[in-house]
Amino acid sequence: MKLPGWQALRRGWLLYHLAEPHFAFMYDDPPDQEWVALDCETTGLDVRRDQIISIGAVRIVGNRLLTSQRLELLVRPERALKVDSMRVHRLREQDVAQGLDPAPAMRQLLDFIGSRPLVGYYLEFDVAMLNREIWPLLGVRLPQRKIEVSAMYYDFKNRQLPAHQRGGAIDLRFATMMNELALPLREAHDALNDAVMAGLAFLKLRRLLAGA
What is residue 83's predicted lDDT score, i.e. its pLDDT? Predict the structure, then answer.
């Protein structure tokens, strides 16, 4: 498909700034009806100082979550893990010591994602953490479309309310969302488990919103 002039110019500008031409596929049209559900575990919640220690990703095709097409990576941080973060994700120093350096981990992840849109729960944080590693490597940030599951859930719940109550606060906690959608809760704060659950929520909400 031929791109409109401004889109072709923008794509050319982005490719010009891409440090590794191998990853030009990120700017291709995504495969039809395909997405990647994504989650990262980190040493903390500070985007400027904390680091990624594990990544989980799983492909979605049509109405199916393909757990046979998944990516699970440990990433070796530069600094020692904090005790508080170990209590959350249950990864120990000896676990992450076997992980990849950030650069090869990012390359594996980008090859897995391709140009597919990204799906996640509070995805903005994960993308910010990934972009911090990808920017110095490639000179660009993740260009794929991002789909926030909590925003889909908010839209779904909001539509169920009487008109005069719409636009108010809705409980967006992950466990609440999964319970309301009658979806199984796996053990949380495991990157692959969280990616799988976000993918399941995406598929169900997509069906519910389409039928609303």
Answer: 59
- What are the chain's domains? 5-211 (3.30.420.10)
Enumerate the H helices of the chain as residue ranges.
Answer: 5-17, 83-89, 93-96, 102-113, 123-138, 149-160, 174-180, 191-211
Of 176, 173, 171, 175, give the one whose Cα is nearest residue 158.
Answer: 171
CA angle 89, 172, 123 (to 5 degrees): 55
Q: What is the pLDDT of residue 30?
A: 96
Distance between CA atoms of 162 and 104, rounded to whole angstroms? 50
Give the amino acid at 70. R
Query: What residues pair up with 118 in beta bridges, in sequence order?
Result: 36, 146
Q: Are 21 and 44 in contact (CB under 8 A)?
A: no
Characterize 136-150 residue by residue with b for buried, 16 or more Cβ atoms within 10 angstroms of its Cβ, and e for exposed.
Answer: ebbebebebeebbbb
Whole-angstrom Cα distance, residue 89 to residue 91?
Answer: 6
The model's pLDDT over 5-45, given as tens digits with 9 standing for 90+, comes to: 666 777 777 777 899 999 999 999 999 999 999 999 998 88
Torsion of CA 41, 44, 45, 50, to 10 degrees: -100
**With contact defined as beta carbons under 8 Å apart, do 174 and 149 qualify?**
no
Q: pTM of this prediction? A: 0.89
The candidate with the shortest Cα–Cα distance to 38, out of 103, 130, 101, is 130
Question: For the segment 144-172, what is each residue's pLDDT rounded down to a tens digit?
Answer: 999 999 999 999 999 988 877 888 889 99
